[in-house]
Each structure stands twice: as structure tokens, then as C-alpha cells.
User: Fold these one by one.
Assistant:
Number 1:
Amino acid sequence: MPIPTEIHLHQKSRVLEISFDDGEKFNYTCEFLRVNSPSAEVQGHGPGQGVLQIGKENVNIEKIEPVGHYAVCLHFDDGHDTGIYAWDNLYKMGVHYDEIWSDYLKQLEAAGHKRREPT
């Protein structure tokens, strides 16, 4: 699996940019990363136990902490800091970004929530 060669947080635009050693480069909004956190708080402890994250349009990343040589822990300004983002997971999230984002928006709509535009 490809590994990152560069990770750059654009705090003003709330975008995390990651370049991988195979030449791929992905831009992830902080909101996207927060609502798709691999943490048990978001994903649940088993299939079907995930918790829909709402109201995260303006979330930002405060700190990026390395976890060994295989992942990072992202510390968000809403206090969430328990997700370990493994390189392979981040890569897959980048490849499937549009599909994952579309699914999230459909889940919000199905739950009766409207996403606000970030300020």
C-alpha cells in the first residue's frame, strides 16, 4: 500500500492534503475526515452501529500526531481525537472520496438533517 510522502494542513480552507509515494495526491476536507473517523465513537463497535455525525461543517484539525509508521491521529477542534487514520485507510478514502461523500450526504438527508455551508 502506498505511504504518504507529504502531509500538509491548510487550516484556513480546512483541507488536509496528502501526497503518496505512488504519485497520487488527495485533498480531504476536515469535515469529511471528521464525519468518517475510523473511531469507535463514529463507526460503532460492530456492523450497523455507526453514529451519523451532524453539524461538523466548520470543524478543523488542530493537531496531527504520528502513530508509529503506519498512521496519524487527527485532533479536531470539536474535541474529537480518538480516530487512528491508517495510511491504507486514508488512501482508500482518497480514491473513493466522491462516493463516500455522496453516501454521507444521502445519510444526512435520510435522517432529516440539512447540511449547512461552512462559514
Number 2:
Amino acid sequence: MDMSLSSLWVSMSPIAKGIVIIMAIMSIYSLWVMIERFIVFQKAKTQSLKLLGALTNLLTRSEYGQAIEVTKKYKNSHLAKVIAAGLLEFEASRRDKRTADTEVAVEAARQGMDRTAMITVAELKENLGVLATIGATAPFVGLLGTVIGIIHAFEKMATSGGGIASVSAGIAEALITTAFGLGVAIPAVWAYNYFQNRIDRFTVEMSNSGSEMAIYFLKETGGNEKSVA
């Protein structure tokens, strides 16, 4: 009996074909998410490195306006979003006469950076739930195909009354759907864990940047409190 993939496809039951098509869609979708998230994360890493180099001199000279403009050039940087939020809140609070001579400006900047960091983490996690769902469900979808294939094999045996040769296609169908399900799930789980690790690293970087900016603002407030008042 011909055991090529094309022959097995023809011999598959409609339900088994539907399961294979569903898993193919899941595989394509997960691959798209992997590529899209990888590009996003690489841009975030690259632009953040460039941002830090561009901001160092500006913050040393307390040129907040120019620093905010620089952060706008790196829209894909997770650090740019956090630092920009801190600078905007700090500047807005310092201009308010009610908070110009207090540490309220620093606290406002810290809270602004914390809020932005949480929003940025949520943005970085976008579509990762798809990978988790596919990684968790694909083996079970493949298992369903396995059950359908075995049922199909026994149906052929019952109608033909033959031996192992009459059910070999059904058994092969069952094993193929199982392998297909695992082939879809394993890369999705690997990619999900990889991206989660990168998000954890980005979260630490945003937390460290927020802490450093808060310390910087405290120094600025302490050093310029008299002149601002």
C-alpha cells in the first residue's frame, strides 16, 4: 500500500483532515507571532542602547526639553517610554508653584514611570497568550486526530475484515496527527518561554532606569530648590 503523505491525505476522514487544517493554521499563526515579537523586541533593545547614549549629556546639562524630544525619536524603546514619562511628570510638577519647592515633583515622576512601565510590559506581552494557548492545546488537538484515526482504522477493519494491512493507513493517520500536534506545540512553548525571559529582562531594565531617574530628580530638586523657589 502507498504510504506517501498525499495518499494518506486522500485516505483520511473529513474530520481528520479538518484537524490537520486547524493545526496548520495554528502553526502559521504561532510562527507569525514569533517573528513579529522578535522584531519588536530587537527594536526595543537596539533603540534603548542608542537612547542611553543620546540622553547622557542632555541630562547632565539638565536640558529636559531636548531630552524629551530625543525620547520621541525612539518610539520602539521601552526605556524611552519610561524616561519620557518621568521627565514629563517632573517638568509639569516643577512648573506648578504649589510643588516647585517640594519632593512632590519627584514622587509624581516616579509614579508616572511606574505606570508607564506596567503599560509597556502589557504591550510587550501582546500576542504571547496565543503562543501559550497553542502550546497547551496543540497536543490535545493532535490527540483528537489520533483518536479519529484509530476509529477510522477499526471501521475499515470491520468493513473489510482484513488484517493489519487494511488498517495501516488509519494507524499512520493517527500517528501523523499526533506528530503534527507535537510539532506545533513544542516551538510555541519554546518561543513563549524565550519571550517571557526577555520581558523579565526588559522589566528589570525599566525598573532600574526608573530608580536611576528618581535619584537624578532628587538630586536636581535638592540642588535647584532655592533657585526654583
Number 3:
Amino acid sequence: MSDILRKLVIEDHDQVNTLCKTIWEGNDYVPETFPKWVSDSLSTPLGIFRDEDLVALANLEKVEGTTIGWVEGLRVKEGYRKSGLGSKLNEAVVKEAKEQEIKTLWYATSSRNEPSQLVAEKSGFIKANTTGYFRLYRPYPAHSRPSPSIVPLQIDASRLHELILANPDLVESTTFPLAWQFDFKSVEGLSRLLKNSTIKVVINESGDVDGFYCMSKRDRKGDTWTAAYTVFTTNRSVFVDIISRTIDEADTLGADRSVYFLGPRATEWALTLGYVEEEFIGRRFLLYELNLSI
């Protein structure tokens, strides 16, 4: 029994649907995104076939105008897991990335997904960033009212970069998270990541930054959508205020859920809010990185 590795085409869509139908209780994003992968010149979807059945898939996405690439949507069909197919496919993606002269290859996953972490580590990826993570659903929980004395100011990515440089203890990592993605903390990286986002900052009386938050809309199936927030802060009271504001904002905008990606201090303080579900206690969103320039 031999496996065949090849680039996927639109005619494979039915098999992609079949492979993903048991993932996330049928709510996997991959079937919906697959046609875009096939048509996008920056994407290279790959699959492993066994006896003409698609048993594993993943996509390599190159970030336009950069030497950065992403491993996306790595999936192994139920009944074929824990057989090395994930590692085999990931290694094929790495090989393809080298051929496309990608220098930095990223792979994001949940701290709860140990098999996914092992696949990354077997291919030589190292953990580059860890961010806190939790979700809230409509109807949103009762929470404190935002303080009238705190007035967040809306800024752009370039200004955020300046403030981060001036306040180095605010974002200590070299990469920055938003909506299941990361990019470098440079002005170019922030501009790419936040180009369709709202950015608001809280500045204290001394002119220092106490915290900031970014919001990006993420559509899901049907009419449902998610408000994805990134929150970094050095002040606990400001953190509580930001969370209250974002809950109100998500509710007013009609978001079906709000998802939070948190800096280290915000991750710690989230435990004291009283309404973060137990399943998110200790949960993290992870970024793995492979340096292909060596």
C-alpha cells in the first residue's frame, strides 16, 4: 500500500469535506476555505492519498511581499491518525517552503493539541510565542461597567509600533498575536496584521501606555461572526476596564462570540474575572517557528 503526495485541486473538494466532517463537530473552517487555497497564487495545498482516498492535507501560504510562510489547516483523517502522516505531510510542506525561498515558516496551534505540537517539533519547529486565550459567547456574562475616567484613543499600526518601542515592557515578544495569526512586532508586521483592525490605546496622566487592545472581525458560517481581540496591559484595573469595554462592543456590534488573545499579565489577570470558563484555564495559543535561512 503506497501513499501518493500531490498538490490538491478543486476536484478534491468533496474528499476534503469528507476528511474534515468529524473535526470540531463538523465546524472545521478548512472545507469553506479550500476553494480559496486552490485559486490563490500564494497558497500551495498538499494532500496525501492512500488507495485514492485523501487521508491528510495541509496548505502552505506565503505572506505576500515577504519571505514568511504559514503551515495552515494540517488535518489527518479519522482512522489514520497517530501513524506519522501528519509529520510526513508537514515535512513535505517544509520542503515546498524551501523551494519557494521562504525564510521564516510559522505553525500555530492550541496548547490542548499535543499531537499537533509533536508534528511541529518533529519537523524542527521551535516555540516562538505563547499567548493566553479564552472565548465568551452571547449572551455575554455580567461584568463591571467601563470607567468614565478611562478614555481609550484610536490609533493606527504605525503609532502602535512607536508606543511599543517607547514602552518595551508592554509587548516583550518579537511577534504579535491577533485572530489566530501572528506577525512580527515591526512596523511592517503590525501593518500587515492590523490592516483591517481597530486599535485603541489607554495612556495614563504621565503619558505612559497602560494598555491597548485591537479588534478584528472574523466571519464564520452563515450570518455568525466573531470579534477577535488582542489585549496587552501593565495595569490590572485597565485590563478589567478593557475587557468590559470589549464585551459591550461585541454585544453592540452583534458578534456571536468574542475571542481574546492576551499578553502575559492579561493572561494572569483573566483568571480573576470570574466568568472565564474552566476549559480556558491554562489554555494557550502557540506559535512555532522554523528558520529556513540557515
Number 4:
Amino acid sequence: MKPYDIASVRERFRTLSTRANEQLGMFNSESIGIGRYVAGKSPWERHSNGDELLLVTDGEVQVEILDADGTSTIEALTNDTLFVVPKGKWHQLTATDNVNVFYISPSEDGVERTRGHPFDGGDA
């Protein structure tokens, strides 16, 4: 057991201009942490072993969720917005500026990632 000062992590991340991640601990078998995203797109990913919780703590980001038929939904997330990505859904974050996201994410053994669009053949 260890307490974490989330405010100090957020403050340290504010000065970064590169992608960063700090794992804060585990909740059951899920990873808890804060990710620092910079302008651009994250890889596409999906978790076959559970939902993923995202909470924007600083900044703005769009999350795109793909349905099985290839249609997508885009949600704009701003400070203090919480969003749950459903289990098994491909998703990608797009930031126009730096953003910090607190997350609770399923274990890595159930994650798939690709740079290319998942329905266009994957890595590109």
C-alpha cells in the first residue's frame, strides 16, 4: 500500500512536451496510472479482457470508438470528463495539444495495438 500524490504527477507532466506514462498501482488485475499525451494520434487499441476507464485531468482529447461494422463514434473529452471504453472495442485518442489522462486499464495480456486502422489491414 502506497499513497500517490496525483497533483504532483500532473504538475510534473505539465512541463513535458513528450509522451509519458506513470503507473500508480494495481486495482485487482487492472493497471492504474496517468498518461501524458502530446498532439497527435495514439495507436489503435482494444482490450479483450475488460473495460477501460479514462478521466481527463488536464486538457482535451477526442476518443474514437469503432463498432464491429466499422462505423465510428467520436467523443470530445475535456477536464474532469470520465469515459468508459467498452471491452473489445477498438479505440484511439487524438489530441491537438498536451493532455493528461488518468486511466484504469485491463492487464496487458488482453490488449491489441496497431498504428494503422484496424479494419484496413492493421499496421501501416
